[in-house]
Amino acid sequence: QGVLLTGLGTFAVIQEQFHIKEEVYVVRRPVFQIDMDMLYLQKLSYPTVVIPGNARIKPLNYKWLSRATLLPRRVVEDCVRETILLYSSHLKKGEHLSFVFKDIGVLSCKDDVLCMRFFHECVTGLESKASHIALLRT
């Protein structure tokens, strides 16, 4: 499963197999695939994340977000779009601000590397059996 934030990227949960000694672990972990206009990422590097082609990616559910915030859908859409544009323009200017996603993690830029750092609770909430492996891989 995944959620597309147009102009920013895609959050998804992927499954990976890991072989440790003679055991095989299947681990679910969160990933973020950056999908910003190259104009904003000119001097930055970022990790390449590949979300499998069979992952179900859906656009952000503005209808649900509108209900949850009690704001009109159009206002929510404009707010999300303007926030992404503002963050992108800061990156273009070389201003490396952190972009916090509640209960998920922080998109930050350090030493000209833009990457998503997921909160411990986000990772362990997805994977209860092998959370230590998921944490190391994330």
Summarize the structure in words.
- This protein is an alpha+beta fold and 138 residues long.
- The chain has one domain (2-133).
- It is 30% helix and 33% strand.
- The chain has 4 helices and 7 strands.
- It has a 4-stranded mixed beta sheet with strand order 3-2-1-4. A 3-stranded antiparallel beta sheet has the order 5-6-7.
- Strand 5 (99-101) and strand 6 (105-110) form a beta hairpin.
- Helix 1 packs across helix 2.
- The chain is globular and about 50 Å long.
- The chain starts with a strand and ends with a helix.
- The model has no long low-confidence stretch (mean pLDDT 88).
- This is CCD81 protein.
- Residues 57-129 form the CCDC81 HU domain.
Question: What is the topology?
Answer:
Blueprint: E1 2-5, E2 9-20, E3 23-34, E4 57-59, H1 62-69, H2 73-92, E5 99-101, E6 105-110, E7 113-118, H3 120-126, H4 131-137
Poorly predicted residue ranges: none
Largest sheet: 4 strands, mixed
Helix content: 25-40%
* Outline type: globular
Which class do the helix and strand fractions yield? alpha+beta
Main sheet: which strands, in order across? 3-2-1-4
> How many separate helices?
4
Residue share in β-strands: 25-35%
Radius of gyration: 16 Å
End-to-end distance, in Å? 17 Å
Mean pLDDT: 88
Which H/E pattern describes the elements? EEEEHHEEEHH
Total domains: 1
Kindly state the number of beta strands.
7
